[in-house]
Amino acid sequence: MNTNQRTSVVGLVSERVSDPSKRAEVFGEVHRLEQAGYSFEKATASLELLIRRVLSADPLPFSVLSYHVSMRSGERTHICEASVMVNVGGKRFHEVSEGSGPLNALDKAIRIALSRAKFKGVQQVSLNDYNVSMLNGAPGTAAKTSVLIQSGNGKKSWWTVGVSQNVVEASLQALTDSIEYALVFG
User: Fold this and answer.
1) d(Cα 7, Cα 11) in Å, to the nearest integer?
2) CA–CA dist 105, 80 (Å, integer)
3) Which of 41, 107, 122, 131 could be stapled to 148 by a disulfide with Cβ–Cβ 3.0 to 4.6 Å?
4) How far, in Å, CA of 130 to CA of 127, rounded?
5) pLDDT per residue as tens digits for the range 86-96
């Protein structure tokens, strides 16, 4: 990471967090996540959410309690199906959807659940870019992956990040951050 990138993370945290002890807590969490493979230089929406999680006692708008993804294929087609269990304010929503890939199916199922929970504006959020990178560590297909997602709502765009050895899990982390960012900072 070059100095300018580090400065941008330090600058954003310093700008948003005035209390020195809370700032230290945020930097500690940033450091812990960076050690796990996260990078917030581009994924400033995920950094904004991390800051909010440290500073605010407000509950998250939603959480994904569980999910399942499967794929079936035919002669020239394949369909992914996702099932998600989403918690919104203590109420559970279980939805199933199909998509052209695992992330598309998860995205659709989460949006259905959040729409049923009366969240406004979630349908206006679009996924604009999706990048997967292998991180150092295990070789080949066992490597940890980092997923960056750029999303937008017609007014602005933002980047989020997820990290896991499971590319679907990393994608889901970045996707849920993206939707949460839209709901919180819209």
Assistant:
1) 6
2) 6
3) 131
4) 8
5) 999 999 999 99
β-bridge mates for residue 129, sequence order: 150
Q: Which residue from 182, 75, 80 is spatially nearest to 124, judged by alpha carbons?
A: 182
Confidence of residue 5 (pLDDT cuts 50, 70, 90): very low
pLDDT surpasses 80 at 151: yes
| Sign of the alpha-carbon torsion through 66, 154, 12, 171 | positive
Task: Return the structure tokens found at 176.
Answer: 């849920």
d(CA 183, CA 48): 13
Query: Of 183, 35, 17, 37, nearest to 114 (Cα)?
Result: 183
Q: Is the pLDDT of residue 1 over 50?
A: no
34's tokens = 């960076």
- Burial of residue 99, with CB atoms counted within 10 A of its CB: 0-12 exposed, 13-18 middle, 19 or more buried: middle
Terminal C-alpha separation, the chain: 29
pLDDT in tens, 44-76: 999 999 999 999 988 889 999 999 999 988 778
